[in-house]
Write the structure tokens for this entry.
Amino acid sequence: MSIVFARERVSDSSREVGVLIVEDSWNVAQSIKATVERAGGRALGPVPTVREALHALDTQPVSLALVDMNLRDGFADPLVDELIARAIPYAIITAYEALPSNADRAALDRMMKPLDHERIASLISRFTGPAQDDQSAQV
């Protein structure tokens, strides 16, 4: 089965791209949030649990999700399944060389820690346009 996500450029500055950040490490989450904002996205979260991420899906307009696989309340597989069911594009963020599940089966990208923030900005720019700050950093 092939899953296709709509990729949409947002040229109207009044229409923001909500990027849900699902990461349980505060330092990593804050650096991702800064990258999202520099790339022109609106950071939603960060949230450290699957439960909070699922709640965010119900209460906020999410255009893209950046998902760490190992969260405070377990692996992110239930969240990934919900993202796929709602056709919300997502990227996996992980320190695992091999995932214990196939959660990356429909991911736009799979990023290893330490993170390449230029790569994150490039992914976000697929939805928002070119990044506003070309500086890259490692976490």
